[in-house]
Design goal:
The protein has eleven helices and twelve strands. The protein is an alpha/beta fold. The strands form three sheets. It has a seven-stranded mixed β-sheet with strand order 5-4-3-9-10-12-11. It has a three-stranded mixed β-sheet with strand order 6-8-7.
Length: about 325
């Protein structure tokens, strides 16, 4: 029998809550408010874009803290059979994701024989090594000191003689800029304003002042071979690299592979639209999104906000002759 105050005849019993129930109610209320906010497309557009998942960060932590000095033969992927320092490429294929990524399939299907390839944003050389094993020559651009060291180690481990490492960044003008990166994700270091702001807000960072050059100036100054193919992956700075290579594109018509970046979804959309407009203006009108196979034009740029864009020179379009952007092949 429960003892307590008697209720009046017309009274309704009051519901009591313990602290766990109150906490659950508060969390549920906050969740509903947050969900309603996320339904606002404008708010979603300006949220920081998560470039690296928790899985990526966990793998990076294990790689850096447990196996950073490990030297081994890669057992799967693009570099299968090659030597590498750091990373988890020593794991058997059984423990790898399995199917090759769209980017890896693209590289495997590309005939690089006799080509000079520029790797702009070479990182640790994970693509550089593959290219060097198939192309005539590779010119790497990697301004991050930590990444440069590992890149050179990996090239030496494989006895690569046809790769040159330029310890500068690439942009639209010669200047000195601050590069900011996370110790955990060194491949995400950037000089792009909004990405730098987000990195500085996120916690511990590594900051380095780097030199920026333009390809149009660096090629004649350093007597570099003209590029047949340029891969660009520089964390949101891709459009600047293209602007500084306008003459190079006009003279040599290299094929391009660009990785898409942006700190928010709105920024990603803006950047890809800007890149496609630049390419279109410079007669690069055969654009294919690697991950989906979609042909990209100025009318559907949102289809390439993530992933990679493969770009080929098509030459000037002559509407009078009825020539379209896909009339020429490389």
């Amino acid at each position: 029998m429960k003892l307590g105050y008697p209720l009046a005849a017309d009274a309704t019993p009051r519901r009591s809550f313990n602290h766990l129930q109150i906490s659950a109610i508060l969390q549920n209320t906050i969740s509903r408010v947050y969900t309603r906010q996320m339904d606002d497309p404008n708010l979603r557009e300006d949220l920081p874009f998560r470039h690296y998942t928790l899985k990526h960060r966990l793998i990076a932590w294990i790689s850096i803290h447990l196996f950073d000095r490990a030297t081994y033969t890669v057992r799967h992927g693009l570099l299968k059979g090659m030597r590498r320092r750091g990373g988890l490429g020593w794991l058997p294929a059984l423990f790898s994701p399995g199917a090759m990524t769209a980017e890896e399939q693209f590289w495997c299907g590309l005939n690089l024989s006799g080509m000079t390839v520029y790797d702009v944003g070479a990182f640790h050389g994970l693509v550089t090594l593959f290219i060097a094993s198939r192309a005539k020559a590779v010119v790497c651009f990697e301004p991050n000191a930590q990444n440069q060291k590992r890149l050179l180690e990996n090239l030496m481990l494989n006895g690569i003689k046809n790769a040159e490492v330029r310890t500068v960044g690439v942009g639209s003008r010669s200047e000195a800029l601050r590069m900011v990166g996370s110790p955990l994700m060194p491949g995400g270091a950037s000089v792009e304003g909004k990405m730098v702001e987000e990195l500085l807000r996120s916690g511990e960072t590594l900051v380095q002042e780097i030199s920026i050059v333009t390809l149009d100036e660096e090629i004649p100054r350093a007597n570099l071979p003209a590029p047949d193919f340029i891969k660009v992956d520089i964390e949101g700075w891709e459009i600047e690299a293209l602007r500084g290579a306008r003459k190079t594109l006009e003279l040599h018509h290299p094929m391009l592979l660009l990785e898409m970046h942006g700190e928010t979804m709105r920024e990603k959309k803006r950047k890809v639209a800007e890149i496609v407009a630049f390419l279109w203006e410079n007669n690069y009108r055969r654009l294919r999104h690697i991950e989906t196979g979609t042909s990209i034009t100025p009318e559907n740029t949102s289809g390439a906000i993530e992933g990679h864009l493969y770009c080929q020179y098509t030459g000037p379009v002559s509407p009078a002759k009825g020539e379209g952007p896909f009339s020429l092949s490389r």
